[in-house]
Amino acid sequence: MFFSLAGHHKLPPKQSGSAAVQLWKQFLVFGRMEASCLELALEGERLCKAGDFKAGAAFFEAAVQVGTEDLKTLSAIYSQLGNAYFYLKEYSKALLYHKHDLTLARTIGDRIGEAKASGNLGNTLKILGQFDEAVVCCQRHLDISREQGDKVGEARALYNIGNVYHAKGKHLSWNTAQDPGYLPQEVKDTLQKASEYYERNLSLVKELGDRAAQGRAYGNLGNTQYLLGNFSEAIAFHKERLAIAKEFGDKAAERRAYSNLGNAHIFLGRFDISAEYYKKTLQLSRQLKDQAVEAQACYSLGNTCTLLQDYERAIEYHLRHLVIAQELGDRVGEGRACWSLGNAYVSLGSHEQALHFARKHLEISQEVREAVIFMQLSCSHSLVVPEFWGVEGRASRVEIPVLSLQGAGCGCRSGRSGFLTAGG
Questions:
Q1: Which residues cross the membrane (predicted)?
Q2: What is the pTM of this model?
């Protein structure tokens, strides 16, 4: 039985961040009262909802320390601790708590909880580059969801397995210099598996009438077909994704769709069409006030103008890209801008300017190469795979960071309805 603060003691005012943690600590110590596991967990839930995962995790940790005999509540707390650390990019801790959640769900015979914990484990293992183990966990999520007749869980599991194969395919292709469509057979086979799972996910979310999930599936199918060199198919999928993004007023997804449509048309030699899509990408990136995406759009537009032999316009876009890269401290982007500017100036016959930017590119390349070598030496003991451009649903979670602990049945956890997305 939990001790309730409500109606008995005045709670401290709601705050976020470390200030909230300190205030609650003082409240608990100097108020001469003991907070229950549930009360601490609810505060952790509130902070995570507000986006303060660090403070939220601190309260969840405190809730675990206080303890509870309600194992379903404890399972929910473990799950949300795993999610909080996932969003904080502390993946080893996320893995630990999702394993605790899985063990506890099995102990109490909670099959749905076991399925969700397996899905979260799979997503975390994917980020850590442990793709085969991730597939095993996501497959278990799929199997249990089907066993329980959980269509929503089944759709999420299919989607997440597709994401694992997509990430694995991208990882395998890192050491290859081929353009989309010209990939080693192992990479093609892996990406084809991703496409098959996305197709199955799309079919199921259509059955469920989940338009938002359909949009994500179309986007990922487009990205996968693009990598496989099936550019016409990619365009068809991205047009569907674009339509749904507009339907929801999702400007970020709309921007990604325009960018992906531009990319696909480039490989079909339709440079003028690509330029129009990239211009829409640039316009939306400015509306969204996303400088990194604006820089990417300028880079794409500059290269497309070069292909169209409009070198003066190309230089304008590449100079804008260079300025933004410098503002963001993006040395890799700065180097790319210098390389592209050098090429454009050569085409205009401005050899002095071309030489200036070629030297800048060489200087930056040497600096970046040294930094990469140092990072590889420092991190040689582990494989941490960064997020991949081109996947709708960046490290998609099975759960939102919400405990839903109020009232009876406080261990229930609701599934996540949206996914963070990566551009491309």
A1: none
A2: 0.80
